[in-house]
UniProtKB/TrEMBL annotation, chain B:
GO terms for cellular component: cilium; photoreceptor inner segment; plasma membrane; stereocilia ankle link complex; stereocilium tip. Pfam families: PDZ (PF00595). It comes from Hucho hucho. It is found in: Cell projection. SUPFAM superfamilies: PDZ domain-like (SSF50156). Residues 59-132 form the PDZ domain. GO terms for biological process: auditory receptor cell morphogenesis; inner ear receptor cell stereocilium organization; retinal cone cell development; sensory perception of sound. The keyword Repeat applies. Keywords: Cell projection, Repeat. This is PDZ domain-containing protein.
């Protein structure tokens, strides 16, 4: 019985014919008079593959809008061109045509169905209508059409009215290698919602190379990297969950993806589609650095996974997080001399860093004077002679005998956890608003708020808790916050090119704080 | 340890300063000199335009930028912003400002073609710049307060 059903499928593939009676525009007036002549050649069968560009959109609802109609016709020419049915001499970038096909639909809801209909139309009886172009071309054209359908299903779902028809179309073509995948992508698009930007270069290249799986390299602070599968529908939050699962982290809270492109490192908002974010970023950089003499600037990027918000970080609670992230992210901050610490602590931490590098191996002791930069905060090195540093570090090392590399990492974290500057992002800025503070300031943003630190003594001059910060803004050259109310508040203006990072961190910490407060209020309400 | 940290020596000047020095040196190259081309107009006296309070000990210079293609210079701030002044936010590669050199993000724009911009809003400043660029003449005169070299790390963040 199953075999019979399948063979039936093959005989009569599903088309948009039925759908077209209600939702397609009526064929042009001239059709009636030509019915007799053209009958059987299918020229007016709007749901079948066309050989010429459309003069009007397919859908009634699109026809009603002049502007959308225009866009629909242009999109159709681009679909035509993509499928190789329309002459185009110009060499194009990989995603130029796909951008033009999907950009309009991503902005205007009615065009979403129109694009689905146009693609399905070109996949219907393609071989019959385009037969004059030779069998090789037909195969090519149909395969290119499938690529578009695959990309489309990863961007947005069709409306509820069109959806069953698209599903039946795919069901009837389930023997095509891309059909089951398109079906799945449709489900995910329904669940995760519509993307904002056209397909990323990586997505277009993948399907053109007949790959439906995309792997993305992610870098970690301990100098390792791993490949993770990313889908068109992947949101940053899912991506983070996937990574933290693989790395056996107890929680992904506070962790974030970061994209490094040119000289900027930008954190990816949780709710954003991964590919949308990267697209948006590359488009933005492209705009800022226009092609020079036709040479497009390099837009390669790297993806990092790191701890961003350190609100609930407590060393010992999550071992893998400590070993891969917390130790390696805190180490460079410590070595740059951002914290205030005692000489005793510096010896102890120096010995622990040595142990993380070499474990019980004492053969590297003579090299300690040469690697002080990796063991001691930069600004403290000159306080003792290299040999004095070595002697003290060795003495402390011997006290910790038997400790493994991982235990040393944890001990290191437990020492610095006591400091009020643990888990901070530090920014060196020039402030021009308060004559009572030094001009060059070190700013720490952490769970306590925004702290101003004297860069020489490392004294915390003041800490503004997030609850007291009423406003903030940033530009390419500055960062500005208002503390307290607008009348009696104080303002801090900093000269920095890292304002975008400070802005993002402040926004993220404050929104995290607000979410926690809402949750607490909510749970209190439930008890009543 | 941290991957986004560019592994390059940080002892030398920040890139802004390097850029300025390179272009500054270029202006002393012989063929430039022969054409009478300079990055900064040498005999410009800022006190002829501004009071000493407005100059406030800063390094104020006049640039004569030749009009070839777009200016490609972006500004931010304005008198009503937290910055309280008009500041260069970006110089795009390949534009006239970039080709001319001698101006970098962080420099304050004080005047264009003789019009003082120290009390201008962002929109007013942008309009004045656009008007000056689109009006007649082969160049524009830009008076800037050069931002001093950064004596602090302004590139790397460890999260």
């Amino acid at each position: 019985q199953l075999a019979l059903a399948e063979s039936e499928d093959k005989v009569k593939p599903y088309t948009l014919e039925e759908f077209s009676y209600d939702y397609f525009r009526s064929p042009p007036k001239s059709t009636l008079s030509r019915v007799m002549i053209t009958k059987g050649r299918g020229k007016e069968r709007l749901w079948c593959c066309a050989r010429e560009p459309l003069k009007q959109p397919l859908l009634k609802k699109v026809l009603a809008h002049e502007e959308l109609s225009q866009e629909a016709q242009l999109a159709f020419i681009d679909i035509f061109t993509y499928m190789g049915d329309y002459p185009s001499k110009r060499a194009r970038s990989v995603n130029e045509l796909t951008d033009q096909i999907f950009e309009g639909a991503l902005k205007a809801e009615p065009l979403k169905d129109e694009i689905y209909c146009q693609i399905l139309k070109q996949l219907t009886e393609n071989h019959i209508n385009c037969g004059h172009m030779g069998i090789d071309h037909v195969v090519y054209s149909e395969e290119k059409g499938w690529e578009l359908l695959w990309l489309c299903a990863g961007l947005f779902p069709p409306s509820n009215i069109l959806l069953p028809h698209v599903q039946k179309f795919l069901q009837a073509k389930k023997h095509h290698p891309l059909a089951p995948d398109c079906m799945q992508r449709l489900q995910k698009a329904l669940r995760n919602g519509s993307r904002k930007y056209p397909p990323h270069l990586v997505e277009v290249e993948a399907i053109q190379h007949k790959t439906t799986q995309i792997f993305h390299k992610v870098y970690f602070p301990d100098d390792t990297d791993e490949a993770f599968e990313v889908e068109s529908s992947t949101k940053a939050k899912d991506f983070c969950l996937n990574i933290s699962g693989r790395l056996l982290l107890k929680s992904s809270e506070g962790f974030s993806l970061f994209v490094k492109i040119t000289d900027k490192v930008i954190s990816v908002p949780e709710g954003d589609f991964f590919f949308d974010f990267v697209r948006h970023l590359t488009d933005w950089i492209k705009k800022a650095r226009p092609a020079k003499d036709g040479v497009v600037p390099s837009l390669t990027y790297q993806v990092f996974f790191m701890k961003k918000l350190w609100t609930n970080t407590m060393p010992g609670k999550d071992s893998m997080a400590d070993y891969i992230f917390h130790y390696y992210q805190e180490l460079p901050k410590y070595l740059r001399g951002y914290h205030q610490c005692s000489r005793e602590e510096v010896f102890q931490l120096g010995a622990l860093i040595y142990r993380v590098k070499f474990e019980e191996d004492k053969s590297q002791f003579p090299n300690i004077p040469k690697m002080l930069k990796e063991l001691i905060p930069h600004d403290q090195i000159r306080h003792l002679s290299p040999d004095d540093w070595k002697r003290s570090i060795v003495a402390f090392f011997n006290k910790q005998s038997g400790k493994t590399r991982e235990e040393a990492k944890l001990s290191f974290l437990k020492v610095i956890f006591k400091w009020p500057t643990f888990g901070s992002a530090f920014f060196e800025v020039k402030q021009t608003s308060d004559p009572n503070f030094p001009e060059i300031l070190l700013i720490a943003i952490n769970k306590h708020g925004v702290s101003l630190i004297d860069p020489k003594s490392k004294d915390i001059l003041t800490t503004h808790p997030f609850t007291k910060i009423s406003n903030w803004s940033s530009g390419n050259t500055y960062f500005h916050i208002t503390i307290g109310n607008l009348v009696r508040g104080t303002k801090l203006l900093c000269e920095t090119s890292l304002g975008y990072k400070m802005d993002d961190l402040l926004t993220s910490y404050i929104s995290q704080m607000l979410t926690t407060m809402t949750k607490q209020r909510g749970s209190r309400g439930n008890i009543k | 340890m941290c991957h986004h940290h560019p592994e390059k020596p940080r002892e030398d000047q920040p890139p802004e300063m390097l850029k300025r020095m390179v272009t500054y040196n270029n202006s002393f190259r012989s063929n430039n000199k022969r054409q009478g081309f300079q990055k900064y107009v040498e005999d410009f006296d800022p006190h002829s335009m501004f009071s000493s309070e407005q100059i406030a000990g800063r390094d104020v210079r006049l640039l004569r930028i030749k009009k070839v293609g777009p200016l490609d210079l972006a500004v931010e701030g304005g008198v009503d912003s937290p910055l309280g002044k008009l500041v260069v936010s970006a110089i795009y590669d390949g534009g006239s400002a970039d080709k001319h050199g001698g101006i970098v993000p962080g420099d304050e724009v004080m005047a264009v073609n003789g019009k003082i911009l120290t009390d201008s809003s962002l929109t007013e400043g942008q309009n004045s710049l656009t008007r000056a660029w689109n009006s007649g003449g082969d160049w524009i005169d830009l008076v800037i307060a050069v931002s001093p070299p950064k004596e602090y790390e302004d590139e790397v963040t460890f999260f």
